[in-house]
Amino acid sequence: MSAILIIDDEAGIRSVLAEILEDEKYRVFTAEDGFAGLSVLEREVIDLVILDVWLPNMGGIDVLREIKEKFPIVEVIMISGHANIDLAVKAVKLGAFDFLEKPLSLDRVMVIVRNALEIEKLRRENLRLKNSLIFQDEMIGRSPEMEKIRELIEQSARSDSRVLITGPNGTGKELVAREIHRRSLRAAGPFVEVNCAAIPESLIESELFGHEKGSFTGAVSRRKGKFELAHRGTIFLDEVADMSPSAQAKVLRITQELRFERVGGEESLSVDVRIIAATNKNIQERIRDGMFREDLFFRLNVIPVFVPPLKSRISDLPPLVDYFMGKFKPPGEERSRTISADGMALLQAYSWPGNIRELKNFIERINIMSDEHCVSAETVRYYLGEAESAQDDGLGEFGSMGLTEAREAFEKLYLRKKLEAFDYNITRTAEAIKIYPSNLHGKIKRHGIRMEK
Ligand SMILES: Nc1ncnc2c1ncn2[C@@H]1O[C@H](COP(=O)(O)OP(=O)(O)OP(=O)(O)O)[C@@H](O)[C@H]1O
Ligand SMILES: [Mg+2]
């Protein structure tokens, strides 16, 4: 149901318009001046504004400018009297959809409103097409595991239920999230991705919820957060296990009442957003260590989807190889390449620690580096060997992490092992690793290391 906001200082016009639009089953909001109107726009999801050209305090043209700046996707229809029709024309040049002349013809109101909403829908549709299949991979694979995932996508897409996607690196968690969005009723709305692990803890709240001008050093102007940008669409909270405790508290509240405040702001904003979260961490362990709120976990984990490693659904490998061969076919070659039978056997025997991402990169490289049309086992072995030695760079599990994350993960592992070695005796451990016991205490707490023997 579309929502329409009427901004007019004449109570009579507001009520007449509200009545006919409500009869047509639109949701209607009214405001008597520009300031009141803008604050409705901040709070509610509005699709269309009907705006008087002549308004007290802030003129209609200024209100229009502000709406177009802050809510560019919202259409605006101007109302003008005979005397100020030139203003209405100017408004159209500034991006208003059209104007209505007083006295209002109710038929014309309905026609223009319908057209404007149609345009708004087309805009969203365009946006959707832009984010659509051109870059996204198809979901390939007919293993029982993949079929199960398809079933879960099918079941969850049409509802707004929250989904928590887990599984190792490169298995396709993001692809699953995008696929759910694409098949949902929100498909025309935005899909906004946030990588919670990549954003410093001090900035994550502002990134998610936006901030008001001057709310902290560096906040030079008001900024919308990802939740606002995802309005009417889906927000994808990637690496959700890495979210700071205070951001977790705010996200929890959004899951309960769909409301939040910008950082440094008092006003409570409502959003209509579906949340899909993903992580490759063991979230149960994070909960046990006190790093992740259990109540938030339950709210996010309404529909759990586990995406297993490629190794455990190796029957998906041949069709994936075919698909990526098609995708990375060198320009100028007529048919996409194939892999010889013994080459395929090698691929199937390999462990694929980087899962589908690694396979995709591998096929891309082979298409660039080799010129065999049917790729031999020798070539496969050669490039797999290279992949294996590239992985074995001595960094182990830390190799795939960003520096901050790796440093943290290493510190935790190091402290755990040292504490264990010294029988969880703080003084002795601290001495051995050459830090102050108080410092060690702090780190134990921060990492949520359990002090059991
Ligand atoms: N079933 C599939 N069919 C085709 N392509 C796939 C499939 N699964 C994953 N891919 C592709 O593999 C790559 C990695 O997938 P994606 O980014 O979704 O993984 P991820 O689980 O989110 O990884 P990470 O944990 O590292 O963030 C992407 O390019 C994706 O399109
Ligand atoms: Mg991902």
Task: Explain the overall architecture.
The protein is of the alpha/beta class. The protein folds into 4 domains: 3-130, Rossmann fold, CATH 3.40.50.2300; 144-306, Rossmann fold, CATH 3.40.50; 312-391, Helicase, Ruva Protein, domain 3; 399-447, Orthogonal Bundle (Arc Repressor Mutant, subunit A). Helices cover 48% and strands 13% of the residues. A 5-stranded parallel sheet has the order 2-1-3-4-5, sandwiched between helices. It has a 5-stranded parallel sheet with strand order 7-10-13-6-14. Strands 8-9 form a two-stranded antiparallel ribbon. Strand 11 and strand 12 (269-270) form a beta hairpin. Helix 2 packs parallel to helix 3 (60-70) and helix 10 (245-257) crosses helix 12 (294-300). It starts with a strand and ends in a 6-residue tail after the last helix. The mean pLDDT is 89. Bound molecules: adenosine-5'-triphosphate and magnesium ion (MG). Residues 173-174, 238 line the site of magnesium ion (MG).
Structural class: alpha/beta
For the record, the count of structural domains works out to 4
Under the CATH scheme, which architecture of the largest domain would be assigned? 3-Layer(aba) Sandwich
Globular, elongated, flat, extended or rod-shaped: what is the shape? globular
Mean pLDDT: 89
Strand content: 5-15%
Give every kind of bound small molecule, once each: adenosine-5'-triphosphate, magnesium ion
- Total E-strand runs: 16
The largest sheet, given as strand count, sense and whether it forms a barrel, is: 5 strands, parallel
pLDDT under 50 segments (min length 5)? none
**CATH superfamily heading of the largest domain:** P-loop containing nucleotide triphosphate hydrolases
Note the total helix count: 19
Strand order, sheet with most strands: 2-1-3-4-5
Could you please say which CATH topology of the largest domain applies here? Rossmann fold
The percent range for helix content is 40-55%
CATH class of the largest domain: Alpha Beta
Radius of gyration, Cα only, in angstroms?
28 Å
Span between N and C termini?
A: 59 Å
